[in-house]
């Protein structure tokens, strides 16, 4: 502890998360005449990942790939999907509640050989 000139106390905390997610803890400081409770919340994000999907199907046949979206954050997620490229289809938006995994169905429906 360091008691500075303005009556503040530094309280160093070391936090070493093992994976992305939402981490919460309570720090309880007690003295004979006082109790203080501090709520600490840390959100750890994963490094951005690039993903590539390859669709191979005979002409005029549809293939759907379920893409899992896992929400390990502290808040519900709402995504708006913007699909670029011919013959791809999927829901325009998706909601992923906290702690859940929702599948986004990406469909490829070619109308010609290419």
Indicate the topology.
Elements: E1 2-3, E2 9-10, E3 21-31, E4 34-44, E5 63-70, E6 77-80, E7 88-89, E8 93-96, E9 101-108
Antiparallel strand pairs: 1-2, 3-4, 5-9, 6-8, 7-9
Commentary on this structure:
With 114 residues, the chain is an all-beta fold. The chain has a domain at 63-108. Helix content is 0%, strand content 46%. It contains no helices and 9 strands. It has strands at 2-3, 9-10, 21-31, 34-44, 63-70, 77-80, 88-89, 93-96, 101-108. One of its GO terms (biological process) is sperm axoneme assembly. One of its GO terms (cellular component) is cilium.
Q: What's the rounded overall pLDDT mean?
A: 83
Order of strands across the widest beta sheet?
5-9-7
User: Regions with pLDDT < 50 over 5+ consecutive residues?
Assistant: none
Structural class: mainly beta
Q: What is the C-alpha radius of gyration, as a whole number of Å? A: 24 Å
Fill in the keyword field for this structure:
CFA47 protein; two-stranded antiparallel ribbon; mainly beta; three-stranded antiparallel beta sheet; rod-shaped; 114 residues
Summarize it:
With 114 residues, the chain is an all-beta fold. The protein has no helices and 9 strands.
């Amino acid at each position: 502890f360091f008691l500075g000139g303005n009556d503040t106390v530094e309280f160093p905390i070391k936090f070493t998360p093992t994976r992305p997610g939402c981490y919460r803890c309570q720090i309880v400081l007690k003295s004979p005449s006082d109790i203080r409770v501090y709520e600490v919340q840390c959100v750890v994000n994963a490094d951005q990942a690039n993903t590539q999907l390859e669709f191979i199907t005979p002409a005029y046949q549809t293939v759907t790939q379920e893409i899992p979206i896992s929400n390990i954050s502290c808040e519900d997620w709402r995504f708006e999907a913007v699909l670029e490229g011919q013959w791809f289809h999927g829901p325009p938006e998706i909601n992923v509640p906290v702690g859940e995994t929702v599948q986004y169905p990406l469909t490829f429906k070619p109308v010609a050989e290419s």
